[in-house]
Amino acid sequence: MILTWDQAPEEVYPQLKIVAPIQKLVSETLVKHVDEPDEHSFPRSNVNLLAQHNYLGLLTPKEYGGLGLDALHATYAIEQIASVAPATGFVLLLHLLTANRIAKAGSEYQRRKYLPKLACDTLGASAWSEKGVGADKAFLNTKAYLQDGYWRLNGQKAFCTGAGQAGVYMVMTDTTDGKGFFLVESENAGLVLGPQMDSMGLQGTHSGSVGFENALVADEERVGEPGKIGPIIAFDMRSGLHSGIVASGIALGTFRRLLDTVRQNLAFEKYESVRVRVSSLAIQLSIMRTHVYALAEQASKPESERPGIEAATMTAKQFLSESALQMTSDAIAIAGTVGYLRETGLERLHRDALGIVIAAPINGQVLGSIGESLRIKDTASHLYKV
Q1: Is 282 helix (H, G, I), strand (E, B) or coil?
Q2: Residue of 299, 300, 319 whose CA lies nearest to 308
Q3: Staple partner for 386: which of 78, 179, 250, 347, CB 3.0–4.6 Å?
Q4: pLDDT tens per residue, range 242-291
Q5: CA distances from residue 297 to 56, 75, 248 in whole angstroms, order as listed
Q6: d(CA 353, CA 202)
Q7: 210-245 confidence digits (pLDDT tens)
Q8: Buried b vs exposed e over 163-195: b needs ≥16 C-beta within 10 Å?
């Protein structure tokens, strides 16, 4: 289905059930990025609002305290929130991915222990990336070994979104049997939090390092079998959720702000070139939104009816993030001095868009995976070598 730049998604997807409350949240109560006193601050008040409305449990099954909704609803919520508060939208996305992995791959013990908390008031985060390793997960310096029923974790993770803010971390380590996943709670005595990174964009996500100094983790907190975590990672791709949704929200927010700017300074009336350039961005935004919602609709089908969307999810992240980066750059150029000033918010959206480009899986890695699948004539693409 085709979605235009200014069209409400519920007009095309009437099955959306959370339109009114999300719109009320976005327009009335959510702290918008242009109103934040400090962009380095974690959007705690926004996260609390999401928790109050049970949106942290969007995908969590009802039997574990969640809303039990699908990818289409999650996509709508993330896009709309990211259009006014990108950092909040990004935090929500990564939280939902973490909770979804536990719901799909966790044991019944783990589901009952963690999902009600993650659906209510506790943030989940993923600690995968390491300094010097980047997007390549083939070699990890973080190690875990089993002794007397407990895993001992040692090492350090970098670029963990929500570091110091999450209550549960899903940690990827190396073991003697291969890569493994472990759930580590924030109260773990061996968990060592590093300072927040002073990044170019998405400051409010509080990305930083998470270290482990002989952190003891019971074997019951292991997710899946070491050496066999590929299918768990595949749940991300099967979910249809990706950081490109945040990029789509950034593009939507950028276009709205640019449109307000050129209308206020009468640039539409004065310059045909402005009308042409803004119209071109409107077309690009239509393509982006059509893409992101079409994928979400496919991901929302029952498992037995769902087509293979792993490659589509991966390429959507690349396409949408690059498109958002270009749109924010063009919007600043069209707005001129007004767009270049921090007070308008356009330059911050540009920096946030760049943050999505280098968010895992980084776009270079996506292109490398596509190229490899083309080289060997195999449509199956693998994001991580595990």
Answers
A1: helix
A2: 299
A3: 179
A4: 999 999 999 999 999 999 999 988 887 888 899 999 999 999 999 999 99
A5: 20, 9, 16
A6: 8
A7: 999 999 999 999 999 999 998 898 888 889 999 999
A8: bbbbbbbbbbbbbeeebbbbbbbbebeebeeee
CA distances in angstroms from 118 to 56, 70, 135, 239, 301, listed in the order given = 7, 16, 26, 18, 24
**Cα–Cα distance, 191 to 153 (Å, whole number):** 9
Neighbours of 222 (CB within 10 A): 21
- Count structural domains, the chain: 3
Q: What is the pTM of this model?
A: 0.94
Which of 86, 108, 123 lies at the terminal end of a domain, its last residue? 123
Whether 238 and 185 have beta carbons less than 8 Å apart is answered as no
Question: What phi and psi, each to the nearest 5 degrees, are found at residue 227?
Answer: 85, -5
DSSP string, 157-175: EEEETTTTT-SEEEEEEEE
Q: Give the three-class secondary structure for 100.
A: helix
Residue type, 338: V
Residue 385 lies in a domain: no
* 118 contacts 61 by C-beta, under 8 angstroms: no
| DSSP symbol at 301 | S
Rounded Cα gap, residues 140 and 72, in angstroms? 34
Inform me whether the pLDDT recorded for 385 exceeds 80: no
State pLDDT tens for residues 74-113. Answer: 999 999 999 999 999 999 999 999 999 999 999 999 999 9
> Read out DSSP for 26-82?
IIIISPPGGG-S-TTS--HHHHHHHHHTTGGGSSS-GGGTS----HHHHHHHHHHHH
Is the residue at 342 inside a domain?
Answer: yes
